[in-house]
Write a structure and sequence with these properties.
The chain is mainly beta. It is about 5% helix and about 60% strand. The chain is elongated.
């Protein structure tokens, strides 16, 4: 038996693990008809940077892991548990049995970028058990696992099996701020019982959800049982089962609100339900003070590159042109051409459309193809083309022809980015029966720029120019302002003299 005061013991057992940054949640998608969506990557890059940004505590853990490597006596065995180091004011270690105890500011660091802290820690280096019976702190930056920063009680963890538990804990797991009566840790997942989740870092979050059970699979998905969605202290709706993947964030289930010069004040809320494997029902509720309800309802199926969507309700575009689908069936199939950078899509929409006092059986079908972004002298070049046919029963019209687009986008520095591009389309408001989702003219040039003022503010300008009849049809101004856990986006359309203000929760 050996005993030391204010000492540190290093036990070498396995390989060094580097930090695996978590995937950014919630891709931002802007709503615009001037090409400004080509700068959406700015918001997404910033959200990813925030999600992956290391805290001072995490930086110190990596520094301590680096120091541990210097004191390893033997090469690390990749098949054995990771080396650990113990440090405390009063530490006892039995070399025969592997039992140890540590008291007073105990710090246990594992070479796999994992840390446990508490006032009293006990365990066994042979079995790999670590126990913190009272208040405990856990920090994890292990490769292939979720980033974890938790404060709680009663840690029991086995660093050989990578399994353990923690009670009454609160902190951050992956990209989520979480609480739970019990956390269970496994090599491939973390399970939380009677907990809450949010991506809002406030002490009293603007929004969160609670669940009886939450299973978090790092880099993949979160599965929740008996879920309640909250805004402040109010439950807005419930679900028995809810599954979130990294490309579909929780925030899409919370409302968006704002003001529009045409609609007045408005509120939008999306509800979706998985009613069968690969079958989802969705209600997109949109209510305005000037025009009342303008909602639509979907029943969708998807499998691989194939999808089908039956939809009914009112749809608006960026020019405040609207159409009511009563209903409409949309079929789509998309796939990459072999190993090429080109993706194609076959599509068809057939349904009963109503707008401007006109009812018509509307049928549009065609094919489109898009090339992956091409690096071009420091720019990104995006190319797309297609062919479509649109038939209307109301006037027996048929509009058909090619469409194409090309855009150059460049991020000049951390503050400034810009794009320029052009569109050609055969179908326009000049020859289409319905104006909804149509360009004003056949040949259009678009350009815009974005400039970040500071951490919380970004401004932008987006323009559209009609080649024939040679006039500017749109000059729009944007202001993005970040609040603590939400964002305000202001858009002023100078040619139309109209405003749109949108407030939405943001996933950071």
């Amino acid at each position: 038996m050996t005993k030391a005061t204010k000492t540190r013991i290093l036990l070498a057992m396995t390989t060094v693990c580097t930090v695996l940054p978590p995937a950014a949640h919630a891709a931002y998608r802007g709503d615009t008809d001037t090409g400004f969506q080509h700068l959406d990557f700015i918001e997404n890059e910033r959200r990813e940077e925030r999600a992956n940004r290391l805290t001072e505590e995490q930086k110190k853990l990596l520094a301590d892991v680096g120091e541990m490597e210097k004191y390893l006596r033997h090469p690390v065995d990749a098949t054995a548990p990771s080396p650990i180091a113990f440090e405390g004011d009063d530490l006892t270690y039995d070399e025969r049995t592997g039992d140890f105890t540590a008291k007073g500011h105990v710090d246990i660091v594992q070479l796999a970028a994992r840390r446990f802290q508490g006032d009293y820690v006990e365990g066994n280096t042979v079995s790999g058990e670590v126990s913190v019976p009272d208040r405990a702190h856990m920090l994890q930056l292990t490769e292939g696992a979720a980033r974890v920063t938790l404060d709680g009680y009663r840690i029991n963890y086995n660093y050989k099996t990578r399994e353990g538990t923690m009670a009454e804990a609160k902190g951050k797991v992956g990209g989520y701020y979480m609480t739970g009566k019990r956390f269970e840790f496994y090599p491939d997942k973390i399970v939380v019982y009677d907990g809450t989740q949010t991506k809002c870092s406030a002490q009293k979050p603007d929004y969160h959800l609670s669940a009886d059970v939450a299973e978090l699979y790092p880099g993949d998905r979160m599965v929740l049982t008996n879920v309640k969605f909250w805004i402040k202290n109010k439950v807005i709706f419930k679900k028995k089962h809810y599954e979130v993947d990294v490309s579909h964030p929780i925030q899409r289930n919370f409302p968006t609100a704002g003001y529009d010069s045409d609609d007045g004040f408005w509120l939008e809320q999306v509800f979706d339900y998985d009613i069968a494997p690969r079958v989802t029902a969705r209600a997109n509720l949109y209510v305005t003070t000037n025009k009342g309800w303008r909602s639509h309802y979907d029943l969708g199926w998807g499998n691989g590159g194939a999808s089908a969507l039956l939809t009914y309700g009112v749809f608006d575009d960026g020019d405040d042109d609207w159409v009511k689908k009563e209903p409409s069936l949309i079929l789509s199939y998309g796939k990459r051409f072999g190993n090429t950078p080109i993706t194609y899509r076959l599509y068809s929409e057939y349904g009963r459309w109503y707008g401007s006092g006109i009812h018509s059986n509307h049928w549009q079908y065609g094919i489109s193809a898009a090339h992956d972004t091409i690096p071009f002298h420091g720019y990104g070049l995006d190319l797309a083309a297609g062919y479509s046919i649109t038939r209307e029963s109301y006037d027996r019209s048929r509009v058909q022809g090619f469409n194409a687009s090309a855009y150059l986008t460049k991020k000049f520095n951390d503050r400034f980015a810009a794009y320029v591009g052009g569109i050609y389309t055969k179908s326009t408001k000049q020859n289409a029966l319905f104006y909804f989702d149509q360009e004003d003219y056949s040949k259009v040039l678009q350009a815009g720029l974005s400039y970040r003022l500071d951490e919380r503010n970004r401004i932008g300008v987006a323009t559209k120019y009609a080649v024939d009849p040679h006039k500017w049809t749109d000059v729009d101004y944007y202001w993005f302002h970040d609040l603590h856990c939400s964002q305000i986006i202001l858009r002023y359309r100078s040619k139309q003299d109209s405003w749109k203000v949108k407030w939405e929760f943001t996933p950071w």
